[in-house]
Amino acid sequence: MKLRSTLLAVSPRNSKAAIINLLEKTNSKVFFTSPKYEAIAKSASVKIEGFSVIVVNPFDIEALLNQPLNDRQNEFIDTSFTEKDLNKPALIIHSSGTTNYPKPIYLTNRYVLNLCGVFKLCKEQNTHLDLVKQSDVFLTCVPL
What are the residue boundaries of the AMP-dependent synthetase/ligase domain, all occurrences included (predicted)? Predict the structure, then answer.
């Protein structure tokens, strides 16, 4: 959201053809991947003209949380949102592809912000609970 770029979350369990199809349907230009999935990303990317793969080592989130924010963050992060911005896609997930190739599902900035609000409300009302665990599954009960 802060970078004004849409993220496509691709399952590495998809076939090479399915990944290529998703990348083409969403007009993706760059594939960020960990070293673990580099081969999958590169094999899919060779079929798409002007496409690049960037390999990124996994982040240590705990260490990053303890670092101070960049003093110049306001120079390169636009934090103002208009109504138009709220309705732009922030995230693309995809269907399972059981009947054909996986289909992209676009989630807007508004959807993501509302989802964050739900988590915040749940945490405020249930302070004694761990809100989200790695094994949890979130069931969306409103239209995407």
Answer: 5-144
